[in-house]
Design goal:
Number of strands: 15
InterPro entries: LRR_dom_sf
Distance between the termini: 44 Å
Helix content: 25-40%
Number of helices: 14
Order of helices and strands: EEHHHEHEHEHEEHEEHEHEEHEHHEEHH
């Protein structure tokens, strides 16, 4: 039996005769990786689909099945169909193959359905997407089922909560989640219309010891969460922090920034990756870069700058460090059509940015990218060929790269 595999334009013949299982597994792992790269647009030519590899021969089935079912996206009817199939199968548990599970709730997933997910013993990443709901519904559902999953899915290391519009998440729910998932290393709360609200009862003062990645994208209340972080007896070891567009930071009548400033003062030096809207963090009077000076160990930094002129302030405020990558997204209104028209080019201070990057504080920089929000088409790169010609110093260092969201 044979199978032709086309990878990166080269054709090779794989003969399936007396291959050791370890070698077969390595081949299928490579096919699965290429399959994922193609779906992300990294490969032009489609590689063999990992889905069809399981049909080649019996030896290929176990590893192919592992990759096919390693990521699952389930909603009400699909989840129940899978659970019913699981109940009828005595020899194979598909849920035990799941590593990444995405559950979409639209009032059609019951507590009974959730309790049957106990067979996801090898789960490492869980994402929950919720419809608009009351705080009480959040409390009841998450408080009931996440401790249960935490007790059974001991490998769960990454959790993402995606509330839909105008949801409110109590700080108590977040704290309870972190307490019941001791192996958690990454936590994300992403809801641009979502708010974090104060807890009405005393909270636990413990946090997963291995929590290193934190991504918070909410409309209100980020400072409430950071206030709780500051109350912990043992300091956090967060190395990667994404804090996007919390509303109210730039409003001087709303005293929301104190806990955020204190957090960066105490723990900012531990950060290696930071993505933030610095214009929202106007913590020191009119200085929009007030917190960046505390992040002295950054290796990777992503800034969202508004207005365009603030990018120069950001660059001058960065402490001398071993910054390796720097990505900046500008909030700039460009004329329709090409990015590098004369009118559009005049809106971005390319030459001044080039001069700022020549400062000794950027001696370790290997990658610089510049983009802007491209509307319905997503972020677009501002480093066109004409733009690079205006940045000869950075171009000579070969640090200019295309911007990616």
């Amino acid at each position: 039996m044979s199978l032709r595999l086309e990878h990166q334009g080269q054709m090779c013949l794989v003969v399936m005769q007396r291959f050791p299982q370890e070698l077969i597994d390595l081949v299928l792992d490579q096919v699965a990786d290429s399959d994922r790269d193609h779906k992300r647009g990294a490969l032009r030519r489609p590689p063999p689909s990992i889905t069809t590899c399981g049909l080649v021969c019996k030896q290929w089935l176990p590893r192919s099945r592992l990759h096919v079912f390693s990521t699952m996206v389930l909603f009400g009817s699909r989840l129940r169909s899978l659970l019913d199939l699981e109940a009828k199968s005595s020899s194979l548990s598909l849920l035990s193959l799941a590593r990444h599970l995405f559950l979409v709730f639209w009032n059609d997933i019951s507590s009974k359905d959730m309790s049957r997910l106990r067979t996801c013993l090898n789960l490492t990443h869980l994402e929950l997407c919720f419809p608009p709901s009351s705080t009480e519904e959040w409390d009841l559902f998450l408080g009931t089922h996440l401790p249960f999953l935490g007790a059974h899915c001991v490998s769960l290391s990454s959790l993402k909560l995606s509330p839909c519009e105008k949801s409110a998440v109590s700080l108590r729910v977040i704290v309870d989640i972190l307490v019941c998932l001791p192996s958690l290393s990454a936590f994300q709360l992403e809801g641009q219309s979502c708010s974090i609200i104060e807890a009405e009862i005393p909270l636990s003062h413990s946090c997963p010891p291995c929590l290193q990645t934190l991504k918070i994208e909410v409309k209100h209340g980020a400072e409430i969460l950071f206030g709780w972080f500051l109350s912990l007896a043992v300091g956090l070891r967060i190395k990667s922090l994404t804090l996007l567009d919390p509303e109210g930071w730039d409003n001087p009548t709303v005293p929301t920034a104190d806990s955020l400033v204190s957090y960066f003062q105490r723990f900012g030096s531990r950060l290696e990756f930071l993505a933030i809207w610095p214009h929202r963090a106007s913590f020191n009077g009119n200085e929009p870069s007030g917190i960046l000076k505390y992040a002295t160990s950054l290796r990777h930094l992503k800034l969202y700058c508004q207005p365009v002129s603030s990018v120069l302030t950001m660059l001058s405020a960065l402490p001398s460090s071993n910054l390796f990558t720097l990505a900046i997204e500008l909030d700039v209104n460009l004329d329709r059509g090409r990015v590098d028209t004369v009118s559009n080019m005049d809106r971005v201070p390319y030459a001044l940015i080039d001069e700022a990057l020549a400062h000794p504080r950027f001696h370790s920089l290997k990658s610089f990218s510049l983009g802007y929000g491209g509307g319905d088409h997503g972020p677009r790169s501002l480093l066109t060929r004409n733009a690079k010609a205006l940045m000869p110093l950075a171009k000579a260092r070969r640090i200019l790269h295309r911007y990616h969201a």
